[in-house]
Amino acid sequence: MKRSGLLSLIITALFTGLILFIGAAEPSGPGDFRSDQFLKSGICSNCHGSSFGEWDGSMHSNADSDFFYQATLQEYGVAAEAQGLSPEFCSRCHTPVGVVSAEIPPLNGSHLSEVSKEGVQCDFCHSVAESEGIGNAPFVLEPGDIKWGNRSDAESSSHETEAHEFYNDSAYCGMCHNIYHPVNNLTLGATYTEWEESSYAEEGVNCQACHMTPGIVGFEENPGKAASTGPEREHVYTHHFVGANAFVTDVMGESRHEKRAIEYLQHAAELEVTAPDSAEPEENVKVEVKITNVGAGHRIPTGVTEDREMWLELTVNDSEGRILYHSGALDSEGKIDPETTVYHTVFADSEGKPTVKLWEAESILSDNRIGPKESVIENLSFIMPENASNPINTKAVLHYRSAPQKHIDELFGERAYTVPVIEMATYPEEEKTSTPGFGTIGAIIALSLGIAFRRRKR
Predict the structure, then answer these.
(1) pTM > 0.85: yes or no
(2) Where do transmembrane segments lie in this chain (predicted)?
(3) Is beta strand 146-149 parallel, antiparallel or unpaired with respect to 160-163?
(4) Which residues pair with 317 in a beta bridge?
(5) Which of 63, 105, 245, 280 is a plausible cystine mate for 94, CB 3.0–4.6 Å?
């Protein structure tokens, strides 16, 4: 090849690369927009009353006002200032309008407009034109008269519409439901990735099929109108965005969302118990409990699970009701029996010590959560007392709690809030009831299925 021809090819390649570089979208960042470029969600309710009513009071609508999140955010803010961490890291998912309009920082919310306080609100979601990857909210926004959605035939007298298949894709959820440490890139939550690597993804069951339809597990059609003036549709996505947070929804008085969170928890897992119904004195009695994730398209629990707790309580009685064996109980302070296996993620700080402060996390000490359609087996045993009488009765309960009571007491003061414990599954199966407080077998639990995702694609 002649030198002039080679030079021409190099110049063409460089020029093409420059064009591609210039044309590549960048995630929307602080100061790119003003908050008054986004509509308050109440305006959307004029035509989308059903969707607004479903969203109102949800964890998405309370993403910024969530008291538990706010307490943790203020702790993060102190660390961020001292260590030079990004002040927008958490807020980018919890008040995206506040971040792109540069109303964050400060993290105390004193500069937030009313629309920014709406958390993950209507006009933000429907102004997402594209995404630059998975995790840590790499959204590209185009607020204005055009509202983005999943329907190519949508028409509105109030605004223009633009269809994007992205709105039917789990990757849309993956923008915020995978979380990576802002400095060391450690995976802090990976709900999206857990789904992507599951059989649900292979079968084409996306996030929306479970979290944006009336069904508790799997897709269920929701016929109706997406807008009051629109046509009847065979299916309209719901906007409850239910996960498993029965703690925050309860405290904030959002009983509709609390109830659905409990229903999701109670359809996530099943228990199978193998145990003898009789034994001889001094015999070593063995009990096997199989826990299966039957209803969640991701691990249980999921999201940022350093605080969340799922554990098994096992009680064995003789025919006269005397307790022969008991594990997994809560004491008077709300602490789980220390010998009990707790299913969650344990992060370690720079010294290798466990921490629930995500900004301190530098490694993962353990992660024993249960994947989609996977099972774990717990083997327990006890010696049959001489005075015990047959038959033996065995009861197992799978519990969930959003956070240890001790952590909530440290944040808000002793017993400012009682973290509910929820019975996810029981053996033998029985009608599940929930009562606040610390029962040895039962109460209310809050499992946040919430958020974990695959490393950003670049």
Answers:
(1) yes
(2) 436-453
(3) parallel
(4) 323, 393
(5) 63
Tokens standing for residue 97: 């309008």
Q: What residues does 302 pair with on adjacent strands?
A: none
Whether residues 251 and 135 fall in one domain: no
Contacts of 10 (CB under 8 A, 6+ apart): none
Residue 280 domain-assigned? yes
What type of residue sits at position 28?
S
CATH for 291: 2.60.40.10
- Asked if the structure places residue 19 within a domain, the reply is no
The neighbour count for residue 4, using CB atoms within 10 Å, is 8
Please report the beta strands in 318-404, taking only residues with DSSP state E, as ranges in sequence order.
323-327, 342-343, 345-348, 354-355, 363-367, 375-383, 393-401
Tell whether 413 and 277 lie within a shared domain: yes
Query: What is the full DSSP assignment across 123-139?
Result: HHHTTEEEESSSSS--E
pLDDT at 450 over 80: no
Contact 271, 289 (CB under 8 A): yes
Report how far residue 200's alpha carbon sits from residue 68's, in angstroms, rounded to the nearest whole number.
31
- Residue 13 inside a domain? The answer is no
pLDDT at res. 449: 32
Out of 168, 185, 215, a domain closes at: 168
- If one counts every other C-beta atom within 10 angstroms of the C-beta of residue 339, the result is 8
**Tens of pLDDT along 370-426?**
999 999 999 999 999 999 999 999 999 999 999 999 999 999 999 999 999 999 999
Q: How many CB atoms lie within 10 A of CB 276?
A: 14
